[in-house]
Fold each of these.
Amino acid sequence: MGKIKIGNRYIGQGCPVYMIAEMSANHAGSIERAKEIIHAAKESGADCVKIQTYTPDTLTIDCSNRYFQVQNGTWEGENLYSLYGKAYTPWEWQGALKEEADRVGIDFLSTPFDTTSVDFLEELGLEFYKIASFEMVDLPLVEYVASKGKPVIMSTGMATLEEIEEAVETVYKTGNRRLVLLRCSSVYPADPALMNLRTIQDMRDRFHIPVGLSDHSMGSLSAVASVALGAAVIEKHFCISREIENPDASFSMTPEEYKAMVRDVRAAEAALGRVFYGVGSQEESSVVFRRSIFAVQDIGAGEAFTRENIRIIRPGYGLMPREYGGILGKACLREIKRGEPVLADNVKGYMELVPAGEEHRRLVFGWANDPETRSQSFAAGEISWETHCAWYEDSLKREDRKIYICMHNDAPVGIYRLDLSGETAQISYSIAPECRRRGYGQEMLRAGEALAGEIFPQAKRLCARVKPGNEASRALFGRLGYEERTEAGSLVYEKNLTAVLQEN
């Protein structure tokens, strides 16, 4: 999904929800109250305060026949011209209100309702514009606003899909692609049960731009729910008190309510987090209560693992339960007492390194082009079959390079390579995509350490280069006692091979 930039921040997927406090008529005719609202909006956690730029004459005409009377809803019985006269924000205030917002440190936004108001706001230096739901069908106005080349936030209340598509195309044909759409129910107040918030997801999928919510419902439930559906912007009417009489007070939020909504929205964002599988930071202390393989009888060195002497039980300090069938019948390398965990280095042949041969050419090619492997490689581009074949044939012939296929329970789980340079053997390794995050990398490196001294007797050090950001490899080498340093933009891990061989 796209993002747009307003000032120094971005709006869109992966960014904090942009919170707009709509002042509208809540100043109740007082510029001092309008300034108070700006301060209160900032203190309540709003990112932006919004006003509306119109006069009764730019919206309608002074006429009292039945067409200009509000028939139902919050403003039932009102004449349109009279209603807009009560609600509008005098244009002579607006420069001072923008200055106050700038001083306070909150973004200032307005909804223009005709070309003269756009021109006026251009003179004020507005950085972006809002288009109201009722004006979305005024395509000449939409085009004029978009032609200014600034970000546009457009509400879509009452609009059919075809009308939204037409308005979006009108913006785009000006060359302006900086657009946000807002789902909206143009009822004051709106019933949450009739707001159809799932439309937010559909709009994101259709238009591939940020989508948010212009919320006229009471409370914060709809706003918080919209965050879970991907809303990038939330707009809510904001007042100092609903006791101050004006056309918008009855469905506006007080500072305390708005602050609580912002808190809930930020909590919802934090709870949504990111796509993640595995052990979360708060779960780390619980991992030990999973099941694993333990000795339930004393097991002597050389004795076979059997169903009688090992079991899958809590806690989780031993091998994962998936390894149970694979170790049955294998020899125990060292004595294990009842109640001790069975670990990989207790099991003979747990990980075997088999010299790579011609029969492994295509297997290695597939592993090498796995997207995750390429992303962690210093040469991240895809490898062609021809390039791979030339490299593989050369590698099998070289005396200073040894490649092994790592076998676990007779199945290939990865590749391990050593390249000799002077007295240093450099390690490269990769785990098969379907075998990652099972602990095989650690056992592969341990097996490789034991083998390195045999194949390269002159080597005194083991070394590995890791791309910054590869936290899995970084943690792995750290657990195995490698020393870390930074060199030429990469992380380098080293270990004394002589000490390793003495340990083994």
Note: The longest helix spans residues 255-272.
Amino acid sequence: MPLVIQGLNKHFDNSDKATLNEIDLEIESGEFVCIVGASGCGKSTLLNLVAGLEKPTGGKILLDGKEVTGPGADRTVMFQEHGLFPWLNVIENVKFGMKLAGVPKDEQEQKAMHYLKMVHLEDYKDYPIHQISGGMRQRTALARALTMDSKVLLMDEPFSALDKQTSNRLREELQRIWMETKKTILFITHSVEEAVYLGDRVVALSPDTGRIASIISIDIERPRHVYSPEFVELRHKIMEQVRGEAV
């Protein structure tokens, strides 16, 4: 069991109630888990705690049996904003994390090209960042995250700032890449449709109690199609759950 969250609590000093309250969750190796919920329910806080960017008020997080006490190379985070460096071109951005980690240059080149091909950007490897679209920037950021080969990939609403068409295309890309790599992914999203499309399980958080309201297994064959009857039924079920918790 690579990622175990036990009795996790988070209380901020400027709030009268806990943002997260007694969160218990186990994520299997190679599993794709999506976290959904209304604004303010603690989705991003949960990801930041797993990333080691914030400290819990109580409880603990274990990765392969070792307690998470801060950021580490075993977890890679991909945020809503791509976080690319404008003075570096596409492939140099993809190599950046590997350079910091001391990966040999030949291996940097090999892995960067491997993942650029996976996200269909090999022909744009020498382009400056300002010359590629928003969707291509997010694909560059995804390639950079994948090169780190961490145990867990943490994604915080990575497609929410993009237009609907681009975001749908990137969902398809991510589903394909996950099917190829079987990377363990914890994915934060405000979109129930996105969660049902991508996740093995969907975890709905309650904004009122800070607890897990429900965990739904998505037993739909991949690749998934948003207009299939089983997809529509599950999406509606989870949307009603999230709406009910928000009210």
Note: Helices lie at 43-51, 90-100, 105-118, 134-147, 164-181, 192-198, 229-246.
